[in-house]
Write a structure and sequence with these properties.
By secondary structure, this protein is an alpha/beta fold. It folds into two domains: 85 residues, Winged helix-like DNA-binding domain superfamily/Winged helix DNA-binding domain (Arc Repressor Mutant, subunit A); 209 residues, D-Maltodextrin-Binding Protein, domain 2 (3-Layer(aba) Sandwich). The strands form three sheets. Strands 3, 4, 5, 6, 9, 10 and 11 form a seven-stranded mixed beta sheet that branches. The protein has a two-stranded antiparallel sheet with strand order 1-2. The protein is elongated, with a radius of gyration of 30 Å.
Length: 303
């Protein structure tokens, strides 16, 4: 690839002359002499072998070719500024990328609130979001692929905070036999019906909750589990925030269990690197914790 003949300084001079309407204004803006700005433009035209500016009275205006090259030069100047900012951030310890690992049970609305608040202060930090089920978070931490984690448990030797408790409700379609027996349901009743289970996305394949049904279908996401339940294909324990709308609409109903209708799962926030968390990671983790602290739900959702 040939070495560029025109410098960024020359492109900046051209941009200033055009945007500010003249050489004098550009010189004042760039804190340079008018002659040095004029020389930068003449040198640029000589190196390119074309005319980019024409004087009309005292006003410098772009030629058609000049308009074309300046459009590309603006992108170049912007990219160069972003590169300099990126290097500055890296040297100051501000992360250029954050790998955020979040258990799918964490409410999406809270996650979006935190990310929306983080965005204006992110300094261009790239966020990689990875949603997991149960031990999937552990796998990414062990592989060194997580900076901030919201997961079901704290890894051994890791410090973190329990930031939220998610109620999981045993639910079935309103026409499901479990919701039409006319009395409370026990374990023997549950065993006779199909249970929808969400598969652990990690290598450990941990089980959680009651799993004694003789008939099981296993799916890979909470959304698929809810879809099956709302289509009267089985029963499941699902996070209240995921099913609230379906409960309100009467599509599904809590199963009238004698015991265990609701269980609560704590989610923990911790850093993927035990020894260090950068300023961007600390900022986003604080926002996540604050948003989670605003989460409120009835401990016993209506029948």
């Amino acid at each position: 690839m040939p070495t560029p003949k025109v410098t960024l300084d020359q492109w900046r001079a051209l941009q200033a002359v055009v945007d500010l309407g003249g050489y004098a204004q550009a010189a004042e803006h760039l804190h340079r002499s008018q002659s040095s700005v004029s020389y930068a433009i003449r040198r640029l035209e000589h190196q390119l072998g074309l005319e980019v500016l024409q004087l009309h009275g005292r006003k410098a205006e772009l030629t058609e070719t000049g308009r074309l090259v300046l459009q590309r030069a603006r992108d170049l100047i912007c990219d160069a500024a972003e590169l300099e900012q990126l290097a500055l951030q890296a040297s100051s310890g501000w992360e250029t990328r954050l790998r955020l690992v979040v258990d799918a049970a964490f409410p999406t609305t809270l996650l979006m609130q935190a990310l929306e608040q983080f965005a204006p202060h992110s300094r261009g930090t790239e966020v990689e979001l990875n949603e997991v089920i149960m031990s999937g978070a552990d796998d990414l931490v062990e592989a060194g692929q997580a900076d901030i984690v919201i997961g079901h448990q704290l890894p051994q030797g890791c410090l973190g905070n329990a930031i939220i408790e998610i109620p999981f409700i045993a639910v079935a379609h309103h026409l499901h036999p479990l919701n039409n027996k006319g009395n409370t349901i026990d374990e023997n009743d549950l065993r006779q019906h199909r249970q929808i289970i969400v598969r652990d996305s990690g290598q450990q394949q941990r089980d959680k909750g009651w799993l004694s049904s003789e008939h099981r279908w296993t799916v890979s996401s909470l959304d698929t589990s809810l879809t099956l339940v709302t289509n009267n294909m089985g029963f499941a324990w699902l996070p209240y925030h995921r099913i609230e709308e379906s409960l309100t609409q009467g599509i599904i109903r809590p199963i009238p269990l004698q015991q265990g209708r609701v269980y609560k799962a704590a989610l923990y926030l911790y850093f993927g690197h035990k020894t260090y968390a950068g300023p961007a990671a600390r900022m986003l983790s604080t926002l996540l914790e604050q948003c989670a602290g605003e989460y409120e739900v009835d401990s016993e959702p209506r029948q």
